[in-house]
Amino acid sequence: MKVLFVYTNINGYHEDCYSFGLASIVSVTKLAGHDARVIIVNTKEDYENVFKEINESEPLVVGFSSVSSQFNFVKELAIGIKAISANIINVCGGVLPTIKPSCILEAKCLDAVFVGESEKAFIEFLAKVERGLDYKDTDNLAYEENGKLIINKLKPLITNIDDL
């Protein structure tokens, strides 16, 4: 299955900034046999690169990683992605969703957010999506349902990082 990861670093403080958490998620996604691609967005002009990749590769899932300073950019990109295809599942992980899962309530074009360490949960989520199953019962997932925040249970932390 095709998965596109988008990492925003607009007006970021570090030119070489990259999320180690996102790198870990990309790695396990590839190890699980999925076609995972990454686009780094450093300016709003780079949105077009994301939309071009969406049109060319037609991913089923777009995954973002976000901190609070980047969340408005994530929301803008998610709106643009849903305008291209309402069937694409937009999800977001990272620091912001982990400390404030309620951010999903202010992002109508995000389908869900991942809370905490989600390498195993993300692979389970992808397996459900690939089989056409409901993914909303996936551990570490938070989503909006009828205006309410739903936060699923968290998987135990990975104690042996070599497992990744």
Summarize it.
With 164 residues, the protein is α/β, with parallel strands linked by helices. It is 33% helix and 22% strand.
Key words describing this protein structure:
164 residues, alpha/beta, 7 strands
Overview of this protein structure:
- The structure is a single chain.
- The protein is of the alpha/beta class and 164 residues long.
- It is built from five helices and seven strands.
- It has helices at 20-31, 47-57, 71-84, 95-99, 119-130, and strands at 2-8, 35-41, 61-65, 89-93, 112-114, 141-145, 148-151.
- The chain has a seven-stranded mixed β-sheet with strand order 2-1-3-4-5-6-7, sandwiched between helices.
- A hairpin with a 2-residue loop joins strand 6 and strand 7.
- Helix 2 (47-57) packs parallel to helix 3 (71-84).
- The mean pLDDT is 93.
Strands across the major sheet, in which order?
Answer: 2-1-3-4-5-6-7
Number of helices: 5
How far apart the termini lie comes to 20 Å
How would you classify the helix and strand content by structural class?
Answer: alpha/beta
Shape: globular
Q: Using the CA coordinates, give the radius of gyration.
A: 15 Å
What's the multimeric state?
A: single chain
Mean pLDDT across the residues is 93
Write the H/E string, N to C: EHEHEHEHEHEE
Biggest sheet overview: 7 strands, mixed
Unreliable spans are none
Helix content: 25-40%
Counted beta strands: 7
